[in-house]
Amino acid sequence: MASNVNPTVRRRRLGMELRKLREDKGMTAEQVAERLLVSQSKISRLENGRRSISQRDVRDLCDVYEVEDRRLVESLMQMAKDSRQQGWWHAFGDIPYSVYIGLETDAASLRTYEPQMVPGLLQTPEYAHALIRGAVPETSPADVEKRVQVRMHRQKRLSETDNNNPEVGPLRLWAVIDEAALRRRVGDAQLMARQLEFLIEQSEQPHVTVQVMPFGMGAHPGMTGQYAILEFPDATDSTVVYIEGVTSDLYLEKANDVQMYSVMYEHLRAQALNVEQTREFIADIIDDFGGKNR
């Protein structure tokens, strides 16, 4: 398994190149689908990186687009080959949010709003266990353990550089967390106290910013629910807005959508407690759970 190849990002980059070739040719996805005798949805999924793409797919599309530069065709076919390799998360079996993990692994920065739980990148193993058992009660103990291991592996991006881009430092994380997520008891009081202590510890890293949105702030732009904004070190990789669902997730990449959620996030950051106020606020909740007084 090639650890320095991120198949999710490779698929996205390849999809963008193929979309550009189609647009340069002046063809619609429907026209391409008709030529190749496939569904229009397949062409769309290939272009947005949500579907694995074969070298044959690339060859057929390049034929339709009449690409004469053989070096370009070979480069695209190599990208297709790389995109079919497995990322580190595949070693854990079937993970329902593997597309997101691929994006997060390669991201340079992540802005997230969480209304109901501590963000996964800031969870302790004990909190993650109790959370998964409660949120997905029919999950087997083995699958719970697997999901926790994946979550802990994801947290390495907060202390390690991106293997695909060694010049990029640890993931820059900005988390706005609703007060409800901090007061909701997941597990026992001792577990919650330790989780909140860990949250403060993580927030003291220079590349991790945590802000709390207290109940007293009233209505705010995050009341529609959880979302995350991922940005990447390579300028050719478009920013992605991720919205988690129960049976499927939503990935938004259109400029207008990204702009709307980015503006919403700026309002969230402005309305939330600042960094120092947040640490004091969390410390008070730790006391409520019977934890040590910071």
UniProtKB/TrEMBL annotation:
SUPFAM superfamilies: lambda repressor-like DNA-binding domains. It holds the Pfam family DUF5753. Residues 18-72 form the HTH cro/C1-type domain. InterPro entries: Cro/C1-type_HTH, DUF5753, Lambda_DNA-bd_dom_sf. PROSITE patterns: HTH_CROC1 (PS50943). This is Helix-turn-helix domain-containing protein.
